[in-house]
Amino acid sequence: MSKAGTRCLRLSAAMVAAGALTLAAPAAASTVVGAEHGNVVIPASWGHKAPVIDVTMTNDGFALPDSVHAGFITFRVGSPDATYHALQGVAVTPGHTIDEVVADFQMGLSDSRAENAEGHRNLLRDAVLIGGVVTSDFAPMSFTIPLEAGTYYFFDQNEIGEPGSAPPRMHTLSVHGNMKWEGMPEFSAAIGMGGHDGMAMFEAPSSLDADGTVLVYNNADQIHEAVWRPVVPGTTQSYIDDYYRAINQNLPRLPSPYAGPTRGLQAMSPGRFAVLQMDIPAGEYALVCAVPDVVTGIAHTRNSGMYKVMTLT
Fold this sequence. Notes:
Blueprint: E1 7-10, H1 13-17, E2 28-35, E3 38-45, E4 52-56, E5 67-78, E6 86-92, H2 98-107, H3 113-126, E7 127-134, E8 141-147, E9 150-156, E10 171-180, E11 189-194, E12 201-203, E13 207-208, E14 213-218, E15 224-230, H4 237-248, E16 263-268, E17 273-277, E18 283-288, H5 300-304, E19 307-312
């Protein structure tokens, strides 16, 4: 991406965590979020709407168009089903295949922690994960991402099984033409998925609008997701700390803080970002990442404390 003739803003992690991020009306600029392992470059050119692809996920599958023009694309994803569905998009790294990528995802669901970790490491090599939506029957949610020319694959994470199981139904989206760096939605808050060397964290405010628009970016060196899971009213950050500490140290388990299934933004590779238009019931939640760690194979929630209690209003 050329930055010629544009301005750049650097957002500090402290600003994001405090919810102090404010961006004014339509502008032609680039927002660069600094990261220890490189930069997440976020072009901002508001005022142009991205084309919208409506996706309805059911147990019978879902449909996508065959092709779109390169640029920002909005996927509006919903499901009438109360069961779990999750749209996941990937691009395959040159020299690798979508079959390898599916096998990597399957390793992530193995009963072996070593295979869970290996699956994550292989995904970092074999693919670029571009996000998606974990659905609910409450309302559709939209995510907007930049897609440069190439071939992208989409599937329902619900159809991924353990190693050796049947592959999911796969949809191929061909993206063609010169990249149009316009059409990124405005957002009122930001969530950073950060951390390195065995530690992970969310840089996020303590409250968000339940139907707000939020920028989510991955400036870590591992794959992360940002999904909200309702918690028992009154649950605190320290209680979840104690809950996972008891599990990790084989102590008597505390009552689970969780009170329902997750919904939100599917996994993204390092350096990727998305703008998520939320539509989630108001209440108390924990923002969590359950992706297995690349070393331990244990979910980032349990392994490195990647959860944040917050209120959606």
